[in-house]
């Protein structure tokens, strides 16, 4: 199974919605809206965060901090800037 295939991702999403809302996949396909997808995705991400935080606490390590894409780009820009300064 190719987990990166868009059709497989669609099936997984429909399965998640079906499980979450106790509906048949055909009902999800017929009735779900993009808002339903947004709510379900947000809920799944929250559950994952709670699980990761609980695991970190059990293992005695700090909770993982997620940084935004903009923050990552800014970090890369600063590293490249420093690298360019050392070349001069």
Overall mean pLDDT: 89
Radius of gyration: 20 Å
**Structural class, from secondary structure content?**
mainly alpha
Shape: elongated
Any low-confidence stretches, pLDDT <50, length ≥5?
none
Beta-strand residue fraction: under 5%
Helix count, per DSSP? 4
| Major sheet attributes | none
N-end to C-end Cα span: 50 Å
- Helical percent range? over 70%
Tally of extended strands? 0
Task: Give, in order, the helices and strands.
Answer: HHHH
Write a compact overview of the structure shown:
By secondary structure, this protein is mainly α.
Features:
single chain, 88 residues, mainly alpha, elongated
Give a structural overview.
The protein has 88 residues and is an all-alpha fold. It contains 4 helices and no strands. The chain is elongated, with a radius of gyration of 20 Å.
Give a topology summary.
Elements: H1 6-21, H2 25-31, H3 34-59, H4 69-87
